[in-house]
Fold:
Amino acid sequence: TNLLGRLAVGFSMDAQAHALKIRINSARELRDRLAEGEDTYGTDFSAFVRVQIHRRKESEKVVNMLFSPDCESERQKGLYWRSSFHHSTLFPVFEEEARFNLGEIWSQLDEHRVYICVMFLRGTVAEFAGCMSMSLEEAIAPRPSQWYWLLPKAKGLVHSEPVDVEEYPTDPRKNVIIAGRAAGTPNEFINGTYVLQEGMEGGRPIYREHQRGLYLYFHAERGAWAVGEKIGSSAPFAFVEDRAGTPDSVLKQWQVFSVEKSFVKTNPIAQSHADTGRFLPDPQLTCTPKAAQPRGATMSRKPSVKVTREMKCTEMVESTQAYL
Structure:
C-alpha cells in the first residue's frame, strides 16, 4: 500500500501578527517497516514530527532538512519545527502546536509550501515514516483538525490527501478486548470486545462495547483510560492511570470498583455507593488487541445487566473520594 498511516493536523491563522499555527494532534497506524507483520509496540524507536515551510522550487533543500537522518544537529529556528519524541508507539499523541511568523515572506506566500513529515528515531538515526504537504496559501485558510494520509516521499512532497471517513470503515484488527475480570466478582460485565469508533476523547481513540453500550475512553484530567457508560464519565467501572496512546499498550494495573453497579427502572432516589465501595486493583484484568488475545483469556459468561437509557443508575465513587 502507498498509505503509511494517518496524522491529525489543524491550521489556524493570526492575521494581525502574520503568524501561522499548525496543531499536530496525533498519529495512527504508523508503519514500522523494520518490524512489518510483527508486534511493534516493544520495538526500540521514538516517533516525532518535523514541520518545515520552504520555497517549493528548492526541493533539494527541503529533502535535505525534512528527511535528514541526523537528529542531533537540527536547526531549531526560522521556518522549521520539531515535535517531542514518543517512545515505542505507532499511535503517538502529540497535542503540540508549531507557530511560524510569516512576516518576512508575506508577499511570497504563493512561492512556498508547508511540509510535514513523521520520523522514527532509532538511537541517533532518524528514519522516514511518512509525509504530506500543501501550499502555504492553502495552509493559512483556518480549518479544524482533521485526518490526513501519510504518503511516500515522492507523493507527499507535492500532495496532501484528507482521509475520507465514509471510505474508512473501522478495521476490526484495531479493536481491543478487555478480559480477566473473574466471574462472580463485581462489575464483571466490563469484559468484552470494544470496537474502535470515529472521533477522539482527550486526544486518544474511543472504543465501544455494543452489547452493553459501555465506552472505553481516555480521561485527560485524570490521565487515565477508563470504562464507563458514557464518554468522559468521572465515575467509571474501571480505570488505569496510564497515558499510553492506546489502551492495549498500558503498562500499569487496572482498578475496578468493588461494588456491583445497581439500576432502578423507576424514579426513586438511588443510594450512593460512597460508604460501601471503592476502587481495587485487579492484576488479572487485561486489554489486548483483538487479534492478539492471549490463549486462556476468558470472558465472563454470567448474564449481566445491559445499560439502557431507560435505566437510572447510581454514580460510583470511592469510599474516601470520587474518581476525580
